[in-house]
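pasting input
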Amino acid sequence: AQSVTQPDIHITVSEGASLELRCNYSYGATPYLFWYVQSPGQGLQLLLKYFSGDTLVQGIKGFEAEFKRSQSSFNLRKPSVHWSDAAEYFCAVGAPLGQNFVFGPGTRLSVLP
Amino acid sequence: GAGVSQSPSNKVTEKGKDVELRCDPISGHTALYWYRQSLGQGLEFLIYFQGNSAPDKSGLPSDRFSAERTGGSVSTLTIQRTQQEDSAVYLCASSPGTSGLNEQFFGPGTRLTVL
């Protein structure tokens, strides 16, 4: 069964600073990887996803993530954080036959003005 | 709208009462998922449906929890004899299929408070 860890429970960055949120997964084959964002009072929204091919994927809102098989990682990055990026971020892994998505515990991002 | 809807948005109940939470998926989506998100916690998978059948019920916390889906559309999550630890936000998501390739589209959730 697949699993996901997000080592950072809470991260605080200053507006305009760069951001990297870590995600490590465990899965026996090529995983399907996702990043979702949950803004306060909002539902979960997909930021980006990786299935195959280019290991650097671009998403919405200026986010990108890089799949590194050797490190079993799928870290989320943004070069310059905006105050509106303050939210909870979830990494998730899906299996080819569906079953249940497995979500990581989430990383809460705070942005200082 | 065309998104996933859930009702009620908020539910306050007394310990020991039964509650029903409803999810209306996006039209045409064959897969439907229920999750629970407790305060400060991540998403806990509860159950998923492919059509009207639920191949995986392993996430249901106890036999007080049950879910059904009719007509390949609306789903209801029922919690019997609610306990205070059932207080959480219950999220529903739908997807065009259960393949891991498919994005899940989430509803706004139902916030359940058990007094």
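fyi Residues 15 and 82 of chain B are 5 Å apart (CA to CA).
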